């Protein structure tokens, strides 16, 4: 195995998303935008309807290159591509190659949701646990159990979801919430997702958990049937767009997560005819 270099750029007065797009044309291994903030301070979502400027205060761009690639040459190319007046400041980190599959797997460990509910990847050695275990293999579907809104939804399902309900998981992602519903309550559940890759990931996770939950693309989902409980952990802007759909398909209760305090009232107003639980 060889050596590699991470070159961290400190770019000021430029939108890092714009810089990222331009630097992607460099003939190097990869270009990455990395959040410098802690998990609690970080923005979890990028709302496509309200794009934000990403700058050097909160993020940084990292260029991955071969160890033999002259760093100064890369910095000069960066200056030219971005049209900078001077060479950008940077840090260089040299590291050895490794088994990246094993390294990636080592980053995902058991997540304890409660004393009787946990989430863990399939490669973690199974241990005695007096409760429900949900196995999730990280993929293109959102939801591995680390996100605060996912944890809130899982706790709500465990503590508040009644049995003998028909349930809809709208924006099902990795399938983590629908898997929890089936394992904990045995309720009938359908997952709806806009992304086929996420559905593929959800189907894979269902197989790992020994379940057969059905997932459909949103464009194929029928709005003619009502569900006792609808759970949705997606962006508020998307929830607002789907407000009429939620009125059509919710029989008893709509459970929403991922909503900012500033967005709470408008969501309630649009869905005032439904019993809403905001978590």
Description:
With 279 residues, the chain is α/β, with parallel strands linked by helices. The chain is 30% helix and 27% strand. It has 2 domains: 3-97, Alpha-Beta Plaits; 109-278, Vaccinia Virus protein VP39 (Rossmann fold, 3-Layer(aba) Sandwich). It contains 9 helices and 13 strands. It has a 6-stranded parallel beta sheet. A 4-stranded antiparallel beta sheet has the order 2-3-1-4, covered by helices on one side. Helix 4 (148-160) packs parallel to helix 5 (176-185). The longest helix is centred in the middle third of the chain and has 13 residues, at 148-160. The model has no long low-confidence stretch (mean pLDDT 87).
Characterize the main sheet. Answer: 6 strands, parallel
Instruction: Work out the helix count.
Output: 9
Specify the helix fraction band. Answer: 25-40%
N-to-C order of helices and strands: EHEEHEHEEEHEHEHEEHHEHE
- CATH 2nd-level architecture of the largest domain: 3-Layer(aba) Sandwich
pLDDT below 50 for ≥5 consecutive residues: which ranges? none
Q: What CATH first level of the largest domain would be assigned? A: Alpha Beta
Q: Structural class of the helix and strand makeup?
A: alpha/beta
- Beta content comes to 25-35%
Quaternary arrangement of the chains shown?
single chain
Notable characteristics:
13 strands, 9 helices, globular, 279 residues, 30% helix, 2 domains, 27% strand, Rossmann fold, Alpha-Beta Plaits, 4-stranded antiparallel sheet
Draw up the topology in text:
Layout: E1 3-10, H1 16-23, E2 30-35, E3 59-66, H2 71-82, E4 89-96, H3 100-106, E5 111-114, E6 117-120, E7 132-135, H4 148-160, E8 166-170, H5 176-185, E9 188-193, H6 196-208, E10 214-217, E11 227-233, H7 236-241, H8 243-249, E12 250-257, H9 264-270, E13 275-278
Parallel strand pairs: 6-7, 8-9, 8-11, 9-10, 11-12, 12-13
Antiparallel strand pairs: 1-3, 1-4, 2-3, 5-6
Helix pairs in contact: 4-5
């Amino acid at each position: 195995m060889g050596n590699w270099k991470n070159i961290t750029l400190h770019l000021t007065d430029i939108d890092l998303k714009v810089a990222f797009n331009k630097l992607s044309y460099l003939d190097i291994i990869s270009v990455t935008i990395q959040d410098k903030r802690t998990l609690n301070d970080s923005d979890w979502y990028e709302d496509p309807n309200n794009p934000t400027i990403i700058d050097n205060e909160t993020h940084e761009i990292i260029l991955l290159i071969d160890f033999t690639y002259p760093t100064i040459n890369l910095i000069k190319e960066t200056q030219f591509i971005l049209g900078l007046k001077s060479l950008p400041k940077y840090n260089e980190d040299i590291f050895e190659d490794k088994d990246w599959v094993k390294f990636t797997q080592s980053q995902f460990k058991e997540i304890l949701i409660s004393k009787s509910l946990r989430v863990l990847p399939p490669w973690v050695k199974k241990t005695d646990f007096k409760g429900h275990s949900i196995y999730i293999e990280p993929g293109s579907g959102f939801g591995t159990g680390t996100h605060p809104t996912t944890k809130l939804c899982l706790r709500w399902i465990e503590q508040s979801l009644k049995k003998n309900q028909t349930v809809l998981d709208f924006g099902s992602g990795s399938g983590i919430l629908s898997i929890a519903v089936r394992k904990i309550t045995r309720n009938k559940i359908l997952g709806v997702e806009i992304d086929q890759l996420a559905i593929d990931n959800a189907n894979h996770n269902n197989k790992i958990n020994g379940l057969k939950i059905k997932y459909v693309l949103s464009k194929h989902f029928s709005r003619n049937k009502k569900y006792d409980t609808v759970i949705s952990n997606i962006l508020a802007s998307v929830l607002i767009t789907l407000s009429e759909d939620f009125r059509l398909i919710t029989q008893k209760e709509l459970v929403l997560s991922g909503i900012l305090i500033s967005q709470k009232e408008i969501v309630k107003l649009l869905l005032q005819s439904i019993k809403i639980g905001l978590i």
